[in-house]
Amino acid sequence: MIGFTVLEGLLIAAYHRLTGRGLAPADYALNLLAGLCLMFALRCALFGWPELWIMLFLASSGVAHGTDLVLRWRRRGRQLQAGFDLDH
Questions:
Q1: Residue 88 located in a structural domain
Q2: What are the counts of helices (DSSP H) followed by strands (DSSP E) for the chain?
Q3: Given this model, what pLDDT does residue 85 score?
Q4: 27 falls within a domain
Q5: Is residue 86 in a domain?
Q6: Cβ atoms within 10 A of the Cβ of 19, count?
Q7: What does the alpha-carbon distance between residue 42 and residue 88 come to, in Å, rounded to a whole number?
Q8: Domain-located, residue 50
Q9: Are 79 and 85 in contact (CB under 8 A)?
Q10: What pLDDT shows up at residue 79?
Q11: How far apart are CA 15 and CA 30, in angstroms?
Q12: How far is CA 40 from CA 1, 8, 15, 58, 76, in A?
């Protein structure tokens, strides 16, 4: 699954670069990173790696997820201030 997820991210980025359509990497990179870190944490747990690695991957996932949320809220706030409400 880790390899498939990395391949998916690369294909989406390539599609955007070649066509200018679809999601830009900046729109999904942190979300993808958070998911990958969770997968690595699970892999470490399943293979009996030291707990430190599991904690580092879980913490990294949380930081990536939190950063993604903050950036999305800021972007949404700027859109609302500019008078754009894309959801309605």
A1: no
A2: 3, 0
A3: 62
A4: yes
A5: no
A6: 8
A7: 39
A8: yes
A9: yes
A10: 80
A11: 18
A12: 10, 17, 26, 9, 31
Euclidean distance between CA atoms 36 and 38, whole angstroms = 5
Residue among 54, 72, 53 nearest 64 (CA): 72
- What total number of domains does the chain contain? 1
Least confident of 27-41, 52-66, 71-85: 71-85
| CB contact at 8 A, 38 and 61 | yes
- Read off the pLDDT band of 75 (50, 70, 90): confident
> Model's pTM, two decimal places?
0.84
Q: Both tokens of residue 30? A: 């942190």
Range of 27's domain? 2-81
Q: Can you list the alpha helix ranges (DSSP code H) found in 20-86?
A: 25-46, 51-81
Kindly write down the DSSP assignment for every residue of 5-26, as one continuous string.
HHHHHHHHHHHHHHHS-S--HH
